[in-house]
Amino acid sequence: MVSVSDIARLAGVSKSTVSRYLNNGQVSPKTRKKIKKIIEETGYQPNVFAQSLKAQQTNFIGVVIPRFDSRSVNIALKAIDQTALAAGFQIFIVNSQLDPQRELANLKLLQHLKVAGILFFATNVRKEITDWVEQTEIPVLFIGQEMIGHSYIIHNDFQAGKILATHLWQQGYRDILYISVSQSDKAVGIDRLNGFKSYLADKDVKLEILLSDFDQTHIKQVLRPQLNQLKSRVIVCATDSLAQAVIQLLKDHGYQVPTDVAVAGFGGYSALNLGQPMITSVAFGYEEIGIRAFHLIKELIQQPKSVKIELVPNHLTIGKST
């Protein structure tokens, strides 16, 4: 592999001269022409990332994700990557695996790498994270959680809960089992549930709430004690991924969906519907949120003192699970 030292030796100049050439520094026209010719002849490819680290800022956008096995994150990531590439940026992804300590370490790593901006897929945002964001000069956009005083882009999860509750009420469902997740995730664990409950507050309906986590195995464990009490009920899951696990568990125990038990969720993941009834769900625009998130972080890079806030609308998709 050809190195900067090789280029310098072949051109009869110092390494620092080659470095200045690669970084558009001051080099005489004659020397510049000689170095360019040797680079073309040898096929030398400079390390763009290493070069950019020497500058005050790179053209990399850091992206902090909570885990790799999230469909919503992956859809948004693909949109971010494509939009960034078209605008001349690259993304640098770091995974926290839902570990608070790794989240902070990842933010510090991205700061060290001099990324131009950070997109933070937020779940449970702690004070030490917001403290770090307030002291850094790197623009940060939170994705998925409302962060007062900071820039963020979110789905309207409260509205999503109301949309689904309205539909189920209008369809005649009066006995509802809602499976939520930890309140540490405000958007999924609090806002969706509160929106759902707000519509039903003055309605004559039975609403039971169970708590699970995002793991499909765990939700099956949570639901098993209820298996003999599910006839004619509708089960609402905090995500479509959990709804998929519930449908499979019901099938394994002889229930017909939706004849015996109806199921609904949040997310609108078309990939989950293969081989199963299409899930009635409030669909979130994950691709749209990825595209908009990149444009917002680009605006923040250009206007670092500004605060950007955006809500992405939701819509109901009626499937065959209700």
Give the DSSP E fraction (strand runs of 2 or more residues): 15-25%
Shape estimate: elongated
The named CATH superfamily of the largest domain = Response regulator
CATH class of the largest domain: Alpha Beta
Which sheet architecture does the biggest sheet show? 6 strands, parallel
| Second CATH tier, the architecture of the largest domain | 3-Layer(aba) Sandwich
Structural class estimated from helices and strands: alpha/beta
Which features characterize this protein?
alpha/beta, 434 Repressor (Amino-terminal Domain), Rossmann fold, 3 domains, six-stranded mixed β-sheet, 12 helices, DNA-binding, transcription cis-regulatory region binding
Helix-strand blueprint:
Elements (H helix, E strand, L loop, with lengths): L3 H8 L3 H8 L6 H14 L5 H7 L5 E6 L5 H16 L3 E6 L4 H13 L4 E5 L5 H9 L4 E4 L7 E5 L1 H14 L4 E6 L5 H15 L5 E6 L4 H8 L10 E4 L2 H13 L9 E6 L12 E5 L1 H17 L6 E4 L1 E4 L5
Parallel strand pairs: 1-2, 1-3, 3-4, 4-5, 5-11, 6-7, 6-8, 8-9, 9-10
Antiparallel strand pairs: 10-12
Helix pairs in contact: 1-2, 1-3, 5-12, 8-9, 10-11
